[in-house]
Amino acid sequence: MALLIKALLGALVVLLIGILAKTKNYYIAGLIPLFPTFAMIAHYIVASERGTEALRATIVFGMWSIIPYFLYLLSLWYFTGFLRLPLALAGAVACWSLSAWLLILVWSRFH
């Protein structure tokens, strides 16, 4: 049942993005993925299974995870200036993946 609720929440988010993308305020569609739907689910699960200290560590790691997302947006903005959209998205995902990998590597070493 919990898996069904998570799937419905994800579908609702995608539907809302699609609707907003067609309005005059299309740019708000870029804000919707940042609503902490999945973060709340992850935080609830971590706190329930591992306790408050693990939740607090997860929250701090989440704060650092803003860096890969920022690099994704920055690289996508840059790549859309001269690449077709599919290639620009692939390049931005590659930048996100590399920076996320580096974040995990650094976090694992120093935390």
Automatic annotation (TrEMBL):
The chain crosses the membrane at residues 31-47, 59-79, 85-107. The keyword Membrane applies. Keywords: Membrane, Transmembrane, Transmembrane helix. This is GlpM family protein. It comes from Pseudocitrobacter cyperus.
